[in-house]
Each structure stands twice: as structure tokens, then as C-alpha cells.
């Protein structure tokens, strides 16, 4: 199962149908249609209606992209996240990136790797986000759709720095393609990831296992409370009601049985006491000395011709 979790979409887009058909033909099974909101957040943001002519076997998700420059914008992220399947933040400075990694409620941190960043990616900061279940996204679209030589060079350098800082963990790869020409086949994406510094196995996980974990964790956040799932009881057989007389009889039965078993156990224990020595029970040092003395005494009496007293 291959995932592409960032396909820009707007209602009435003439390229949307061709892009989705091409993704399905390449073998992708899950696609997230992303909507970007810049500036002040609306009171009740809702995802756009999904296209009607969806290829068979293709699962569509809704995604919200939010450019983040001020940490004060995070106050409404929890309420907004209930309307979308995925919420992605795009920090524009180091302070916003630190806030997104440590405290912001999001599913994906999608950095614009086609521009030059004035700061370095730090392992301690990025690993805090990975420990919280947040994944970092690399979008290859700006580097393959003719955005310019500068954008391609920045994409390669930033992707290598991000992979080096995260040790190759918590990375997903998406297209961010607005047209079908910007989409690449899954194994072409894996080769791109190998060029950036990921191994072939991690490159495949970036569009398969890691992307699946993102969607699963996002769904778990929205359908549970702190990872605790409500279980609905059902399907059990109802226990029949019993009379008080039956309860009293059944309550008295085990008691008498217990008493009788206790007596039997006591009798068995008392009856088996003489045979405990022959059953392999270890003798104490005092008992060994007593028996040795008894044997020597019997031997001395036998030599003198006197029978031991009984």
C-alpha cells in the first residue's frame, strides 16, 4: 500500500481528476487532498467537498496545511483537527519549528525545503516531535516540476540535512503535485530518497509504513481520549436470575464441603505422619546423631550378651 499524503486540491480544479486517476494507475492506494489556509483562521473551517469521480480502490483523506509563524496560533488547533483527517504545520522560523516539535497538536510537520533556511536542524528538537508521534514530510514536487535550479538545489541540501538530523527516522515523502506531471511512481520516489541519504528500506517505509502510521495515529487521536478507546458491551448472554433460597443453598454447600475437606485433610495429614520419614524426608543433624548413638548402644549391648530394653 503506497501513500501520497499531500496533493493540493480545491473545488472545481480541472487537474484534480487527472491527477487522481494517474495516482491510482501508478499504484497509490491512499491520497490526502490538502487545503492550505493562510492568515487568520476562520471560525469554523470545513474541508472542501471531495470529488465525485474517484478511481476505484483509491481512498481519499482530507488534510489541512497551516503556515505557522507565531506560536499563539496553536490555541485552536485541537478544535480544528476534528474536521480534518490530517493536520500539517509548516513552520516559517526556528521558534515556530521548536513550538511545533514540542507542544503543537498536529500530525505532520511539513517544511518548505525548496527555500534556504537560516537555521540548522537539531537532533534533540526533531527527536522530541518523533517521540510524540509526529512525522516530518519531504515534498519532492518543487524539485521535479521545473521550479528552478535554485529550488532543486535547496531541496536536495535541506532533505539531506533533515535526514541526517533525524537519523532517518520519522520521515514521510509526498508529492505536493498540482498536476499529474509532478507525480512520480512509488519506486521512483524510493530512488529519490536514496539520493537524499535514506536507505532503500527506509525509503519504502517513507511512503508505506510511516505514512500508514500517520493516518492511524491521527484517526486514534480523533476517535479516542489520550489513546483510550471506548469499548461497547454487547453480544454477551444474560445471566438468569436466581432465587434467594437457591443462593442460600449454594452458599451453604461450598462451606460444608470446605469443612469436610478440612477434616479429611487433617486426617490424612495425621495418618501420614509415621510414613513421612520413609518418604525421603531429609533428616536433621540432631536426628542423625541420635540414631548413630542408638546403633552404637545396641552393638555394645549385643557384644555383652544383654538384650536392649524395649
Automatic annotation (TrEMBL):
Q: What is its main location?
A: nucleus
Q: Gene3D superfamilies from the entry? A: Metal-dependent hydrolases
Reading the lineage from the top rank, the first entry is Eukaryota
Is the Ribosomal protein keyword given for this protein?
A: no
Question: What are the start and end residues of every segment in region (Disordered)?
Answer: 239-310
Q: Does the keyword tRNA processing apply?
A: yes
* Compartments, record wording: Nucleus
Q: InterPro entries per the record?
A: Pol/histidinol_Pase-like, RNase_P_p30
Which keywords are on file for this protein?
Answer: tRNA processing
Q: Where is the composition biased (Basic and acidic residues)?
A: 243-266
Pfam families the UniProt entry points to: RNase_P_p30 (PF01876)
Q: Would you identify the family this protein belongs to, as annotated?
A: Belongs to the eukaryotic/archaeal RNase P protein component 3 family.
Q: What is this protein called?
A: RNase P subunit p30-domain-containing protein
